[in-house]
Amino acid sequence: MNEQSAPPGGHSAPPWDEDAPGVLRLPSGRLVRGRGLSRPLDPAAPAPTCGVYLLGSPPPGFSWESHWLRRPGFRLPADREAARDLFARAWRRTATERVEFACAGGLGRTGTALACLSVLDGVPPGDAVAHVRAHYDRRAVETPWQKRYVRDFAPPRPAGPLSGPG
Fold first, then answer.
1. Which long-range contacts does 88-96 make (Cβ < 8 Å, 24+ apart)?
2. Which class for 63: exposed (0-12), middle (13-18), buried (19 or more C-beta within 10 A)?
3. Please, which residues bridge with residue 100 across strands?
4. Which of 2, 76, 101, 102 has a CA positioned 20 to 30 A from the CA of residue 115?
5. Measured in Å, how far apart are the chain's first and last C-alpha atoms?
């Protein structure tokens, strides 16, 4: 995971336009955008406040905060714990910010990440791929191992003191 520039101060931003291309409404009402970097960004579209880029090599520089998760095409994250943590942090930010997820084509790696966000939002892991295909793109989550990754996805454990009998 590699962080690039971070905007100063507050992070609250108007939400995505729900009808804009690539915008997924999660069951809680949160909005997140998925896209393929191979397609040009509409210059009239608002910029994200934070982006998560699922690529084999670092993404180009952006004018917004960005995070890179090393993930070559059709593959899974090498560091699954880091991926879970990044997805959870991004999901939390969707409550008040415009967050986007992107890979080269916007379907396999992006669809898998959006399905994991759906799990974080309360969709059962076994239903998350169908949810993303129904509400984002019918071709999302392209490989059997991406589907398995979503099915086995578990939210990160909350940080904090250990509890239990001492």
1. 88/120, 88/155, 88/156, 90/32, 90/50, 90/52, 90/117, 91/30, 91/117, 91/120, 91/121, 93/11, 93/49, 93/50, 94/26, 94/30, 94/31, 94/32, 95/30, 96/11, 96/12, 96/13
2. exposed
3. 33, 51
4. 2
5. 36
Paired tokens of 52: 């998560």
Rounded-to-integer distance, Cα 35 and Cα 48, Å: 12
pLDDT at 16 over 60: yes
Within 13 Å and on the Cβ side, how many CA atoms surround 158?
A: 5
Exposed / middle / buried, residue 28 (Cβ in 10 Å: 0-12, 13-18, 19+): middle
Q: Token pair for residue 93?
A: 């930010």
pLDDT band for position 5 (50/70/90)? very low
pTM of the prediction? Answer: 0.86
Report CA 6 to chain centroid distance, whole Å.
17
